[in-house]
Fold this sequence. Notes:
Layout: H1 2-23, H2 41-48, E1 62-68, E2 74-77, E3 88-92, H3 124-154
Antiparallel strand pairs: 1-2, 1-3
Amino acid sequence: xxxxxxxxxxxxxVLSILPxxxxxxxxxxxxIPGLNSSSSGHALLKAQAPKNLTNAVTDEKIQVYKWRxxxxxxxxxxxxPPTTAHTEQVExxxxxxxxxxxxxxxKEEPKQIVQADSPNPYSVQGMKKVMDDARGVEELLNNRxxxxxxxxxxx
Length: 155
């Protein structure tokens, strides 16, 4: 019973701390001696970044300096590097990464096929043609029936 209560307290403690770790309000590595999470490269870069930097979007061309530091890491800056190592000046165009719009072809209207010999079946002329065709089929069937009767009579 004591073990169940203790395990429930541990689970509740972990579940209450996980959201704080996820949101960055609590750093569990700071409690482990010998590990200092503030000395990581990400934390150092975050500390050096301006606090008011939220968006670096502009409509103007930007001059950027590009070089490799002593560790071989590619560096970018808007100010020239302190050393005169192999530095490349790059001009960034704000419109170079825009995705071109898809050109939609003009909608072609379907061509209407007009048949002069077959009128609309719902018009008066069309109904007359349908009735004439039906009479023709009736005559063909009657002729066929008569031929079959003649063949049966001959047997």
